[in-house]
# Entry
Amino acid sequence: MSGERRHPRFRAGPPAPGARSGFSLLELVFVLLILAGVLALAVPSLRGFGESRQVRDTAGNVLALAKYARFRAVCEGREYRLHIDRARGRYWLETVGEEGFERPLCSFGQVFFFPETMLVEWFDSTAAERKGYIAFAPNGRADAARLHLTGRLGTVIAVGCEAPGEPFRIREVFERGVRRG
# Structure
């Protein structure tokens, strides 16, 4: 073994004093290329995640306002209305006050906005669509109505109730033409 020469890079034991250890530039570039390839494969599948989340959040807000309006209408014994202004892309609550309808004095009384890229449509809701709002009566009943919220990439969520005595809920979810529940 004494006459055998070994390559200095594959020496066993601790590195010699003054020897450099670590990765070569070529190895680092190779790892970065692999990471770039993996990211290039993953990014297209994540592209619609933000838009889908935005549609779901907006549907959740509309649903929360509808549930709050029904609850407050019964508790206070007065009508509440959930206004949907499709032309201006906004929605808000109103209730009967001393001088007609006014917004509630709480966080639910603010004006909310639909995302600019979202399409808002009434679906089988002729009375609510004609009036521009969903009425919640003191007896717990509400206008039968359904809104379809459609994102730019095709995510559609339906929020509403089919009959006056039913609770409001998220009815259907579609992703690019595929029904998911």
About this structure: The first strand starts at residue 80 and ends at 85.
